[in-house]
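Quick illustration for those who missed Monday's session on complexes.
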Amino acid sequence: MVTAALPRLTALKYEVDTSLDAFGELRRSDHLIGNAPALRERMEEDGYIFLPGLLDREAVRGARRSIMEMLADEGLLEPGTSSEDGIAAREPRTKGLGVRNDLAKRSAELQRLLYAGRMMAFYRHFLGGDVLHFTYTWLRPRAPGGATPPHYDIVFMGRGTTRLCTAWTPLSDISYEMGGLMVLEGSHRLEGLKNTYGQKDVDTYCTNLPHAQERVAGNKLFTGQLSRNPIKLRNTLGGRWLTAEFRMGDVLTFGMYTLHCSLDNQSDRVRLSCDTRYQLASEPADHRWVGEEPPGHGVAIRQGHIC
Ligand SMILES: O=C(O)CCC(=O)C(=O)O
Ligand SMILES: [Fe+2]
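Prediction with 2-oxoglutaric acid bound:
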């Protein structure tokens, strides 16, 4: 339950309206684990499934430890503090704290957590067949002050099946102040948005428009984000921003057309989470994110077309 004791929350520096019609808690579905039809109904209805405690908390802690040690080795944690605590180095605060697939690859504990055991078993059951996961892992050590702008994931990974699931996995206990993920209620049913913004691909550019050369050279003008102001966006689109105080072991899974963003990390710690992708192995996969060395959003895969 969201209580009156809620701290002042911000997202991209904008104060979050936490009134009852603008903000709320994610609906839990942990009691539905093992009941695929009910889980599918939830996904259909809500656009997300929140599964507190799906993963083994000790396994998450082990994965977290391995990553925090790597961050400490890079000087990203405050010297003289325990890497377990994840206290961000005062200087520099942001360098090295972007998406770190490179670190994810080096952690056997994290690879096991995400791509074996309970996580894979969940998706096999939920999707009802053999599962393929992207090999690229969006491991996100998030510096104090940072947040993720609102977006649909399809814009970044829409060249394969659209029946793809994101798993957002906290590798920290994430209080409201530390800033977990928020989902916009009902956003998976916004047909107008799905048919416009939802048709975009961050790695395409218009050959006949100004700046085409910049786009092909890598200076993207379209970041893939829908907005820099989650509060104004909600006022326009409706629904509530839904979130929770997340704990290690929780997983939040959602579809490609569920609008999400994050709260600002208002703590002095690195907020650690990762997002990973799962689909039926029988369906086409976005080639940017699979294989030994996924090319990702590189310049080489950028596609030009006449707009
Ligand atoms: O962790 C975040 O801040 C963003 C995660 C995200 O965009 C995702 O899980 O798809
Ligand atoms: Fe996302």
